[in-house]
Design a protein that fits this description.
By secondary structure, this protein is of the alpha/beta class. It is built from ten helices and five strands. It has a five-stranded parallel sheet, sandwiched between helices.
Length: about 210
């Protein structure tokens, strides 16, 4: 569990799933403008009036992009709580290398360095890691599960080694899909709809106490 107190600075950082501008721009296709980070902030504001929120999702980011902007978009903000969702684009780059330049900056060393800096420069910050996921709304993407699972395991192992809190969103959505049609959770399998974002926000709020 992660403790939240009045006056805390809370950072959401990651890729397009956390990118508010991206989700609003392409709402006509993915129907996900109510980003989970906004939903979490809205609920927390009902209880804590003096929280400060930072939203630093950037579409198409890989882990090395997040590492490159860590000083500006994380360290300098001095967050008390960090919610991080990254990794699906690293896996996708590996899955369809013909669409991207050769993978010269692998994920694991960059994740390791992110943790090293967080531990050294933000030792009191509490970290919640959201593991990436694939929702089964597009059958042709099903083989991507195997590749993504390898990356998810690396992210999970690194988070555990650094005592971060973890939410396995693949497990969350696997359960949700037993009751809800996958396309109602993510039209393209990757970017959640408003309902998909709501499910993520509910899981995050269970951890932020």
């Amino acid at each position: 569990m992660i403790e939240v107190k009045n006056g805390y600075r809370i950072l959401f950082i990651g890729d397009s799933i956390t990118d508010i501008k991206f989700n609003r721009k392409f709402d006509y296709k993915i129907h996900g403008r109510k980003v989970y980070a906004l939903q979490v902030a809205k609920q927390l504001k009902k209880k804590y009036k003096n929280l400060k929120f930072f939203f630093r999702g950037i579409a198409s980011n890989r882990t090395y992009h997040l590492y490159d902007r860590l000083t500006k978009d994380c360290i300098n903000l001095k967050p008390d709580v960090i919610v991080m969702l990254i990794g699906v684009n690293d896996a996708w780059e590996h899955y369809v290398p013909e669409q991207y330049p050769p993978l010269l900056r692998p994920m694991k060393p960059h994740v390791k360095e992110i943790y090293r800096r967080l531990n050294a420069e933000l030792p009191d910050a509490q970290l919640l890691v959201l593991l990436p996921f694939l929702i089964d709304s597009m059958p042709e993407k099903a083989p991507f599960h195997k590749v993504l699972d390898e990356y998810r395991q690396v992210l999970a192992d690194m988070a555990m080694k650094n005592s971060a809190d973890i939410i396995d969103l693949q497990e969350v959505f696997n359960k949700a899909q037993t009751e809800i049609l996958p396309k109602k959770l993510a039209v393209d399998g990757v970017h959640p709809t408003n309902l998909g974002h709501k499910i993520i926000s509910q899981e995050v709020l269970k951890v932020l106490k």
